[in-house]
Amino acid sequence: QVQLVESGGGLVQPGGSLRLSCAASRSISSINGMGWYRQGPGKEREFVARIVRDGTTNYADSVKGRFAISRDNAKNTVYLQMNSLKAEDTAVYYCNARVGTAVPVDYWGQGTQVTVSA
Question: Across the chain, where does the E strand assignment appear?
């Protein structure tokens, strides 16, 4: 099991930047994949970015070139650097940990609100 706590959300103007953090309750070095999802107003939760154990990353097309996911195994923390933010990036951002291989189990944080508005 792993508990996840997100932080770093807030209100930012279009074109601005934010960095989200996701602190895990245990070592993340053995967790297969750590990622970020988001849920905008009236929308379903959607994939944003993922980083796996070997450092490989992948991103939703809507954030490629603007967002960057990284992990610090020593701090048991995953980050999402968000640049050139747009109004459509407004959402609650959730951290995800996928544990196990044969029968993967997903763990979620409580979410952090990001609002992009002038």
Answer: 4-7, 10-12, 18-24, 33-39, 46-52, 57-59, 67-72, 77-82, 91-99, 105-108, 112-116
